[in-house]
Amino acid sequence: AEDCAERGALDTLYCDANGDLVADTPTDPAKLSNPDTLVFAYTPVEDPAVYADIWEPFIAHLEETTGKDVQFFAVQSNSAEVEAMRSGRLHVAGFSTGPTPFAVNLAGAVPFAIMGAADGQFGYKLQVFTQADSDIKEVKDLAGRRVAHTSPTSNSGNQAPRALFPGLGVEPDKDYEVVYSGSHDQSMLGVVAGDYDAAPVASEVVDRMAERGLYDTDDVRKIWESDPFPTTSFNVAHNLDPELTAKIKEAFFTFDFEGTKLGDEFEGVSKFIPITYKDQWAVIRQIQASNGVEYTPQGLAGN
Amino acid sequence: MTNQSLNQTLDHWSRFTLRQRLMRYGGLALTLLIVGWALSSIDVIWAWVWDAPSQMADLFGRMMPPDPSNLPSILEAIWQTVNIATLATMIAVVVSLPVAYIAAQNTTPNKFALWVGRFILVSSRSVNTIIWALLFVAIFGPGIVAGIVAIMFRSIGFLGKLLGEAIEEIDRKPVEALEACGASRFKIVLYAIVPQVMPAFFAVAILRWDINLRESTVLGLVGAGGIGMILQGAIDTFNWPEVAMVLLTILALVVVGEVVSSFLRKKVL
Amino acid sequence: MSTVKDTWKKPPFIANPVMRYGLYAAVAIYFVVTLATLPIDWDRVADGMSRAQRIFSGAFPPSFDRAGLLFDGFMESLKIAILATVGGIAVSVPLAFMAAGNIAVKPVYLLGRGIIIVARSFHPVIVAIIFVKAVGFGPFAGALTLVVYSIGFVAKLLAERIEEIDFGQVEAMRSAGAGFIATLAYAVMPQIMPRLVGLGIYQLDSNLRASAVVGIVGAGGIGATLANAFGRYDYDFALAITMVIVGVILISEAVSGFIRKRIA
Amino acid sequence: MLEITKLTKRYGSGDPVLKELDLTVEGDQLTSVIGSSGAGKSTLLRCINRLVEPTSGSINLNGTEFTTLGRRDLRAARRRIGMVFQGFNLIDRLTVMENVQSGRLGYISTWAALTRRYPREDIRHAYELMERVGIAHYADKRADELSGGERQRVGVVRALMQRPEILLADEPTASLDPKTSEQIMSLLRDLANELNLPVIINIHNVTEAKEYSDRIVGMRYGRIIFDDLPDQLGKDEMDEIYAGVPAEDRAEVGAAA
Amino acid sequence: MLEITKLTKRYGSGDPVLKELDLTVEGDQLTSVIGSSGAGKSTLLRCINRLVEPTSGSINLNGTEFTTLGRRDLRAARRRIGMVFQGFNLIDRLTVMENVQSGRLGYISTWAALTRRYPREDIRHAYELMERVGIAHYADKRADELSGGERQRVGVVRALMQRPEILLADEPTASLDPKTSEQIMSLLRDLANELNLPVIINIHNVTEAKEYSDRIVGMRYGRIIFDDLPDQLGKDEMDEIYAGVPAEDRAEVGAAA
Ligand SMILES: Nc1ncnc2c1ncn2[C@@H]1O[C@H](COP(=O)(O)OP(=O)(O)OP(=O)(O)O)[C@@H](O)[C@H]1O
Ligand SMILES: Nc1ncnc2c1ncn2[C@@H]1O[C@H](COP(=O)(O)OP(=O)(O)OP(=O)(O)O)[C@@H](O)[C@H]1O
Ligand SMILES: [Mg+2]
Ligand SMILES: [Mg+2]
């Protein structure tokens, strides 16, 4: 990678000659990898948590299409996943929204798919909730209030509001007090209990909470909703044998969610939809850039 | 034994009878079997193992040099964390003492109390930190109170269990001497048991204290900050030099804890 | 001596009275201040009780519908826990001897203590990530992570137990000219055996529960299942899992008690 | 007055260690119990204050029947019996004074015990007793810093602190040098006289026993086979008490082999 | 032959406990060391095999200078010195046989030690010695199940198992009944004769010391102030050895008060 003309934000291990913002497949065949066992990991963050066994039908499909053994791991840390891919210990991975740019730049991940509906719709929305009887009617009214963000690194729970709210008339931390609640669930429960005046949360999470009766939908009121953000991206490692990569993609795009456990779990999802990092993640990169996030190996996170 | 057999001096002796030996070999075989069964689930990819040092070096390399630029906020968070860990540990120690007492086989008043004690300890340990955190956030609202109580509940099992074991290992003779004086249960505990478990007590309390320092990641879960949040944030953004800085700070604290505990232990040992 | 004294005070912990009362005052102030600044809103607590009840009411009755998932997760965790415990003890015992001041010479002692302190300072999440990078996702990384996690605990407490042994027995072995290993085997091991068994079994159940750590390496087993049950608000399933864990650990507790009594 | 009637003790399911043993000790007698190792001397003493639960028989101290006491009453009753142990049984990590005062634990309030604020009267008494056996200057030392002999003296003082109605001592002089032994034995004898306190001592040193006792009881295999004035303990009686010790039999066989 | 020259031992920075002490023990002598508590008897014995590091002076056993030995050589040299301890120092959780065989640990391989496969020769020797002191039938009992007397006999046998060139015993009979004491003392004396083994015993029981010893050494405050045949130890010498014991002085004052 020393003789690399252009690598953009990528780590020095990778090269981006074609300018698609993701690591290029190595030209030197010796650097290609064609493992006997594919390692596939998935981490839910903004997506709802799932039990590992629901992936079984897809894994079977992937094994069949690629002709390789596939080991699946439900992982609980994005960083572990990114570092594993960087070290060549992970070949196929689902990264959540915020960490995807890190995976691309630090680990040479190549996003190619996302879960979506039959009509090509995908993604989740950022919603802002307040108490039903609150006098907060629009985002502007948040000024001077206590608002719960989830955690500094969360996309929908922190970075997106910070990037988008100024356009709506309030600047987090300046116009209102930001309190980190720890998670989307905590933000929502805090709003219900009156601990926070309002909170931006991910639609998927609150929908499921309402479904399970964790709070009474009458207690809260939605005051704003964003355009959809992409959800978890599915990636291959940049150095996989191109034939293998093609097989993997084929497996994803030919998988039919209908009637599988996976389909039951992810409502409104019926297939994997092809995407590129350059296009679908532009909004996320923009949000992160406006928050001063850099993807260097040291990736200094600013607020 | 008859005099007959004593007249010829033996030159055979084995630690165990044949039956005992068979049982021991059986136990050993069973253990090996279980370990083998467990090993079977590990598929080690040896190529990765040989490659491991360079991959670990990749990470440690990116940690160097530790980044002190965020040190003020690290120190502030750690100060807060120390307070929380100290309070939570102290309260947990006080609560765990009576539980340890009834959960130790040699001091428990009766079988029922023994199992009640064990049940309390086991529940405290088995219930996930996340669960404790969630419960107490719902009750106290988000913030450090919920964090302290969650950490405290979590610590009781650990402290009670280890103190209970220390109690089980005491020398019974002083207890007997005080029984012979007609002292009440409580005074016997005070005079014959407490002095004997003091060293273990300090060791265990300090050990839990520094586990709690690290466990304070749960504070993040309840929206109360602490060093765990900074660490988590640094990991999530791959800011390894800052991670290294946090680790060094924790290391320094653990060393301080170690010094304090060895001082206390020397005083009481 | 013409009169007999009729007062007595326990010799104080710290001889210098200024230091002593200074320290007491400092500790007292620390506690008053930190406790007083804790924001506890009792109205909120009263409200919170009913809300907590609502949230957790979903836990009853516990649901064993997904018993298969529970069983598989449990077995996976059990395997990892066994390996991590065996490995952890195997590493911790020699380390404990190194870190016991009455057995080891100074440089070895410092090295042993140093290793233990470093093992305790590394946050388990970091250790987990390091091992994922090293050997990939899966139970192997999980076991390695838990081995490191065990060191700080087992080796430290065992070392402290070794420092408390009756040294007369060691002296007896020394005066027989016994070698180092033989001295340890005859004079030290029998004395620390109950503690070792206790720590071992504790470590086994601790490793069984170490969900946070093992979930990171993708070998979550029962812990990951529990975390997922929580993430999905399946509190009834979470309660079922917790009940199983409590049950199993109570059994291990009984076994531990039995063994310790036997070898006491 | 201590009256033991038909006392039997059996550990587990083995042979009884004490066999329907009768013994009465009165007034200011210093009674020495001698007998070979395993004869049941320690068991006898420990049955008296029920540290060992007697299997059957009766133990009556000044009108209180001990064998039938409930937990609470037993605790109060035990205060009336002082005991000195073969292995000292001190609390190593506490100071000598605390060890000594622990003999009063049955009397003082929990609060006083906790804060170590012992009654003046008790402290004076403790110093007096400690002076008498020569350990007063060790009051602030930790018990485990003392030599074997000094430790045993602490044990004796602790028992005396109870102001007991009877004193039991299990080999109180086993690890003392002869002069200190003498002091303790004469202290015990003097106390027996001064306080009209019956004292029962298990002892191996027959010479000492003869010198200081008012009465000697010889045990063998859980029975009393000699009970008389020290003068009456001659060569024959000694042989009977210590003869046929299994250990000795075997030793002779072994030596012959 | 054991030659001790100008041996001084000081614990920490206090007064020396042993003060330029000279002592030579030869051949098959049984030497008893007497002296009041704290005189330094135990310290003297423990300096000989360097369980306690002497401050200065020389200790020479059959030509080997002990004070200058390195770790490894010291270990080999210690095998030549058998030691019986005041507090038994048995390993409670092991059987009597294992305790006894632990005296051979310096000779057998670590593997044999770990697996408890002791050489036949050692086992025979152990049984012989155990028969002799009457504990052979306890070979499989755990050490902590024995009575005090029995425990001490295990300690004696363990020391003899080393086939030592000299035997040191720190109050070996302190908790034995008189018959067993006699047996052990005569055993030690016989061994001294049979094996031409010098034996040094710390002992409080002067009567016993006089009866069994070839020589009596009286210590006071870290010095030897009497060193002669037992017959020469009269009332005056006794008084000198045990006189001025601080404990005693104070005791008299206390009693007078
Ligand atoms: N807790 C116990 N369980 C079982 N047997 C016991 C117990 N305590 C003592 N024995 C047995 O009871 C018998 C009498 O023991 P005891 O201690 O009363 O003897 P002793 O006369 O005091 O001997 P010594 O002079 O050695 O102290 C011995 O055979 C001993 O092995
Ligand atoms: N490890 C130690 N550290 C400091 N001082 C000690 C130590 N061991 C013994 N001493 C002191 O050295 C002196 C001599 O002790 P030593 O044990 O040799 O006496 P002894 O003659 O054997 O007494 P006893 O008959 O009671 O066993 C005592 O004053 C004792 O307090
Ligand atoms: Mg006895
Ligand atoms: Mg001594």
UniProtKB/TrEMBL annotation, chain B:
Organism of origin: Phaeobacter gallaeciensis
Pfam families the UniProt entry points to: BPD_transp_1
Matching PROSITE patterns: ABC_TM1
SUPFAM superfamilies assigned: MetI-like (SSF161098)
Protein name: Phosphonate ABC transporter permease
Compartments where found: Cell membrane
GO molecular function: ABC-type phosphonate transporter activity
Limits of the ABC transmembrane type-1 domain: 78-261
Membrane topology category: Multi-pass membrane protein
InterPro entries named among the record's database cross-references: MetI-like, MetI-like_sf, PhnE/PtxC
Keywords, in A-Z order: Cell membrane, Membrane, Transmembrane, Transmembrane helix, Transport
Similarity-based family: Belongs to the binding-protein-dependent transport system permease family.
Bilayer-crossing regions: 25-49, 77-104, 130-153, 188-207, 219-238, 244-264
Keyword set includes Lyase: no
An example Gene Ontology CC term for this record: plasma membrane
NCBIfam families: PhnE
Keyword Ubl conjugation: no
UniProtKB/TrEMBL annotation, chain C:
Record field: transmembrane: 21-40, 80-105, 125-152, 172-189, 210-231, 237-259
Keywords: Cell membrane, Membrane, Transmembrane, Transmembrane helix, Transport
Cross-referenced CDD domains: TM_PBP2
GO cellular component, one term: plasma membrane
Domain ABC transmembrane type-1: 74-256
Gene3D superfamilies with a match to the protein in the record: MetI-like
Gene Ontology MF: a single term: ABC-type phosphonate transporter activity
Entry-linked Pfam families: BPD_transp_1
Keyword Transmembrane among record annotations: yes
Domain of life: Bacteria
Bilayer topology annotation: Multi-pass membrane protein
Main localisation: membrane
InterPro entries on file: MetI-like, MetI-like_sf, PhnE/PtxC
Record carries keyword Cell membrane: yes
Localization, UniProt: Cell membrane
Family affiliation: Belongs to the binding-protein-dependent transport system permease family.
Name of this chain's protein: Phosphonate ABC transporter permease
Originating organism: Phaeobacter gallaeciensis
Taxonomy of the source species: Bacteria, Pseudomonadati, Pseudomonadota, Alphaproteobacteria, Rhodobacterales
Gene giving rise to this polypeptide: phnE
TrEMBL record, chains D, E:
Record-level Gene Ontology MF annotations: ABC-type phosphonate transporter activity; ATP binding; ATP hydrolysis activity
SUPFAM superfamilies noted in UniProt: P-loop containing nucleoside triphosphate hydrolases (SSF52540)
CDD domains assigned to the protein according to its UniProt record, in alphabetical order: ABC_PhnC_transporter
Record bears the keyword Cell membrane: yes
InterPro entries, A to Z: AAA+_ATPase, ABC_transporter-like_ATP-bd, ABC_transporter-like_CS, ABC_transpr_PhnC, MetN_ABC_transporter-like, P-loop_NTPase
ABC transporter domain ranges (all copies): 2-246
Pfam family, one: ABC_tran
NCBIfam families, alphabetized: ABC_phnC
The protein's name in its UniProt record: Phosphonate ABC transporter ATP-binding protein
Species of the source: Phaeobacter gallaeciensis
Classification of source organism: Bacteria, Pseudomonadati, Pseudomonadota, Alphaproteobacteria, Rhodobacterales
